[in-house]
Design goal:
Structural class: alpha+beta
CATH topology: Cytochrome p450
Distance between the termini: 62 Å
Strand order of the largest sheet: 1-2-3-8-5
Shape: globular
Helix content: 40-55%
Oligomer: single chain
CATH architecture: Orthogonal Bundle
Largest sheet: 5 strands, mixed
Radius of gyration: 21 Å
Bound molecules: protoporphyrin IX containing FE
Amino acid sequence: MLAEVLEKAPSSDYDPYEDEALLAPWEGYRTLQDAGPAVWLTRHEMFALTRYDSVKNALQDWEAFPSSLGVMMNEEMNQVLRGNTLCSDGDAHDRLRRVVARPLTPSALKSLQEEVDREAKAVVDRICSQGRFCAVADLATHLPVTIVSRAVGLPEKGRERMLDWSYGMFNCFGPANDRMRTSLPVLSEMMDYARNHAVIGNLKPGSWAEALHEAAARGEVPPEVVPVMMIDYFGPSLDTTIFGTANAVWLFAKNPDQWDLVREDPSLIPSAINEALRMEAPIQDFGRYVARDYDMDGIRLPEGSRVIVFYGAANRDPRRFADPDRFDIRRNATGHMAFGAGPHMCVGMNLARLEMRALFNQLARRVKRFHVEVEERALHNILRGFKRLVVSVE
Ligand code: HEM
């Protein structure tokens, strides 16, 4: 049956997870987009969805493309990480998401605004007085690691591991390659921490993590899912924003005319951030299970197969965005897929935007030009960004 279906589907031997493809994915994405609305990847035995419409259709139809059977590209992880907000559907998902979202609504985030602005100013003052700095370690990491990790409320011991956990966890979302396997022990450490150390008594009073335990005590969520729900906070709240911020610095360094526009009119910052996220989506792809036979614009996806949903490719689909490889902060990039779409659309996006806006507001006041001196990309299964990005500023 599968063989018969696959005979009719476009297929490709291209491997989006090879080093070269990870470093420069755009041409490969374009080839897959041109090959069809869904393309069978022979190396991974999954369908690649790279066109904007295909990605959107899959993300919006949770009944046909559920998340509760895992959103990772390997079965081991799909078994390990179950039952959190990311990996649940329907009513169960709504229940968890309501609780996880509480501190992340625009009104709840107002309480963080002042601190975020203050810290953004402090970090930008510091790097500007240095003149030369790493946009990842010295700039982008500061807000997530200070403010966000404090708000999550983990005990002091363990917090310093959050960055490694976040990076390792996302590598485990990829196919079962070396990058995924070497990250598995980091993930086990994170799961152990969530189960055995991030417990009431160890958590900061009033923190987001403590609020999850309290919600369970009130019967709003089952107590056994609290540890995996905690991963909804400490998995995606750090590297995503760190990578997104450094990617934006890199884009502005490469496109000084666009930075001039921001400096002239800082009210463009929100749309500039959207455009940076569109161009260089920090999360390039997640997966979905196919729960019933599905017709994706004429390509039959059989029940029981899996799809890889490439947000990063959708964002560069010329069918949706004119001249998609051009960084143009004045375009309307609001429909981009960097935060996903549908019921699982990023619940932390207001926070990510808050942090990025605060930093770029400060940078627009102080920096005339960014010059890239050293760039080293992170070779990562899922995340796109830099390990090191040394820039000097005028
Ligand atoms: C630039 C920064 C960020 C990017 C690019 C990003 C990207 C994404 C994407 C693409 C999804 C959709 C997953 C899917 O389709 O299955 C998602 C979901 C999620 N994100 Fe973010 N994220 C960012 C920041 C954050 C932050 C700061 C937090 C937490 C404080 C967060 C927490 C979550 C959670 C809990 C989900 C799952 C939501 C659900 O399943 O209903 N994210 N994010």
